[in-house]
Write a structure and sequence with these properties.
The structure is a single chain. The chain is of the alpha+beta class. The chain is 52% helix and 19% strand. The strands form 4 sheets. Strands 9-10-8-13-14 form a 5-stranded mixed sheet, with helices on both faces. Helix 1 packs antiparallel against helix 5 and helix 7 packs across helix 8.
């Protein structure tokens, strides 16, 4: 009896496609998570940079305001202390002859910035588009920021590269206040005007390096997590594929198998018959068909019951299974009718096979419900398609009719015999 054909390659391709799709979903999902984490981390670090810069700016502005509101701060002029050349009458002399010089907000800002620069923390720079002191001239970043302030911008910040360093730059405007007018009125400023700005610059190289390492860590973790999850998915899919393949095989077998006899059913037989006729025609091989009907089967059901009738059908199915080749296709064709398709088998060999099956059925002993033995017989019809004749155009319907007609002749001739079809 022929084995059930299973499209294993097609199922393998389907599972491969399924695994690839699931893998893409898993990888994209994990990539989304890790990219989200990386973006969120970058955003938090950027916000921390901005918060730090704003705090520095606010501190220096408050310090400048304190200085301006006190009209500038005078310090004792000693060694290394120079007068501000951009102020009118920056020095005063006390009654005891001690000279004091004024430190106005701009000069104080520059000197504090120098202390910060030397300590490696940050740099303040006060600047404007029309500075009194050339040292306060803006650089490109500051000039663009000052132009933006005149258009209404409230602050500007950017992460820049300075040779091998990463620096964070921040700048916000300075507005003219009453305390500023003594020094800046002659420049045409009015209270409330933007008279310049203060930029804050600090080194973030170390943080940026750590962030870069962090990104590589995220990438490595993402790859490791993806591989681990894909391994789990592959394992689960393999288990699922095995279970589904087994279930598919069972369903496929059920769809082409007669439930009672476990032979092929009629629908599958006709599908295989068309295939075998096409193959026989392609290679010029003969093809034979046996059709069998159990003699007086209705009498068996009426006398012994349908359960006994079913036992007879199953026993005859077993006889067919043990007396045919693996390449032969055996099926239950109807109630008590069976068919055997014999590929590459000519007329005489088919007749001998049919007679062998008939004799085996006749010898088989059965037991009735009351334990009395009985025997059954069967009538066979044999038909053969000679595909060595290239003009042979017989179809599946024709060979079935030929075998059925021969079986009818066997019954008419007394049953329990084999009749070979003489053709259409």
């Amino acid at each position: 009896m022929a084995e059930i054909p299973v499209p294993a390659m097609k199922k393998k391709q389907l599972w491969k496609k399924f695994f690839i799709n699931i893998s893409l979903i898993v990888v994209l999902f994990l990539m989304g998570i890790f990219i989200g984490f990386a973006v969120q981390t970058d955003r938090l670090i950027s916000e921390q940079y901005l918060t730090t810069a704003r705090a520095h700016f606010k501190n220096i502005v408050l310090t400048r305001r304190w200085n301006a509101e006190h009209g500038g701060i005078f310090i004792k002029k000693g060694p290394g202390v120079r007068s501000n050349p951009y102020l009118e009458n920056p020095d005063i002399t006390a009654a005891d002859g001690t000279v004091y010089t004024m430190k106005n907000p701009a000069l104080m800002t520059r000197e504090i910035s120098e202390y910060a620069r030397q300590s490696g923390d940050f740099i303040y720079h006060i600047t404007s588009l029309i500075p009194l002191n050339p040292d306060n001239a803006p650089d490109d970043f500051e000039r663009a920021a000052l132009s933006g302030f005149e258009e209404g911008n409230s602050e500007v910040h950017a992460l820049q590269k300075d040779n091998a360093r990463s620096i964070y730059r921040y700048m916000a405007p300075l507005y003219v206040e009453d305390s500023c007018m003594p020094c800046h009125a002659k420049q045409g400023y009015k209270v409330g005007d933007v008279r310049g700005g203060i930029s804050v610059t600090f080194d973030v190289s170390d943080t940026q390096r750590k962030m870069a390492r962090n990104r590589f860590g995220f990438i490595g973790l993402g790859i490791a997590a993806s591989l681990a999850l894909l391994g789990i998915v592959l394992f689960l899919i393999s288990r699922l594929a095995g279970s589904l393949s087994e279930a598919y095989s069972i369903i496929e077998t059920m769809s082409i198998t007669d439930e009672l006899t476990q032979l092929f059913n009629r629908r599958h037989f006709h599908a295989r018959l068309d295939e075998e006729i096409a193959r026989a025609r392609r290679y010029g091989h003969p093809l034979s068909l046996l059709m069998m009907d159990i003699d007086h089967f209705k009498t068996i059901n009426d006398r012994y019951g349908h359960q006994t009738g079913d036992d007879v059908l199953k026993a005859i199915a077993a006889i067919f299974g043990s007396n045919t080749r693996s390449a032969d296709i055996v099926a239950r064709y109807g109630g008590e009718e069976f068919v055997v398709l014999l590929p590459e088998t000519e007329n005489e060999t088919a007749r001998m096979t049919a007679d062998k099956l008939r004799a085996a059925i006749e010898r088989q002993a059965f037991t009735s419900p009351d334990q009395s033995p009985f025997h059954v017989t069967a009538s066979f019809g044999v038909a053969c398609l000679d595909m060595t004749d290239k003009n042979n155009a017989d179809t599946a319907q024709q060979i079935v009719k030929m075998a059925d007609d021969a079986m009818y002749q066997a019954k008419q001739a007394g049953r329990n015999r084999v009749v070979v079809s003489s053709g259409m």
